[in-house]
Amino acid sequence: MSAPATLPAPSKHTHDKSLLGLELLRFACAISVLLWHYNHFYVVGAAHQGFSVTAQPLYGLLKPFYEAGWLGVQVFWALSGFIFFWKYAQPVQRGEVSAWRFAVLRFSRLYPLHIATLLAVAAMAWWYRQQQGADYVYQFNDWAHFALQLLLASDWPGRSEWSFNGPIWSVSIEVLVYGLFFALCRLGLTRWWQVLGLIGLAGAVYASKRTEHPIVLCVFFFYLGALTHLAHEAVQRLGLGLQRALAVGAVALLAAGTAVTALGLLRPMFYTALLAPLAMLLLLRWVRPASPSVSGFIATLGNTTYASYLLHFPLQLLVANLSGGQPERLPLASPAWLLGYLGLTFGLAVLTYRGLEVPAQAVLRARLLRALARPSRPRG
What is the C-alpha separation between 103 and 92, in angstroms, rounded? Predict the structure, then answer.
């Protein structure tokens, strides 16, 4: 199974110290996904060669990520739900954010890097096919799937036909949930019991196995994040003593859930549904650095997550091409190789965020939102 996407969250929260804990969680999710996809280095065509899960570097330390790192996607979705409810729910409900403005803000955040990595992967996939006579990891690299990728709609059909820069699949699903979120906010469905109802409905559909379309889980976790935001606001209104007691309870519940999951008594997906809100609430309480440099560093880590998510597969494909499609030539069991992979990915992510994402976002927003700022001319 391929894994996740990203938390394409509004940029404003990176400057809010009270939300820096979420940046750390975003970064942890990105690490989780990169470790889950480390196995791609062992792939020739569509099949692994000489691969053993336990032989991956630092397996004893990183076992949960190697075996269930794909669940970082679900936490990404929950983080998006928290951020979107914090930033957009009430302004959208009051009509202060138009559908066009909302769409432009999302498009300018997601699309520039998506199109850049899509084109890079398409070129390198052709190169790999010339060498190996097959595609690398993701097999649906035809014109029809390229068209879906251009529309950021790669997984809308819900067939799990991953193509080109495969990890974008979760972003394509989240785009659908953005539309649902905007519509429901406009209808005024932002109260806690309404959010809880959406979570329950999505959970019931998932449990009944009536459909395997990933939008069901995306709705579940996105609105679980939204409920976490509402819970966080409610907790902030309580006395400090009660806040501390709730934090202790959250730690105890998280410890118990971790132990039960380690014993195999709780499915990892259900554990993630427990982990995501509790981790968000605890990190929001604990991560409040006084140092501006520490705050800036944490914000930078958070800003790398979207780029690292979309860059890591192109880097793996480039390595596969340069090695002639022979993973046995690479020191894949070496911790140094693993650290180099992670360091290079996040280093490039920082440069990409500053050199591509931010400038492209500014240009697109200036041009696409200009019409909204123009006063209408009287007719006649």
Answer: 12
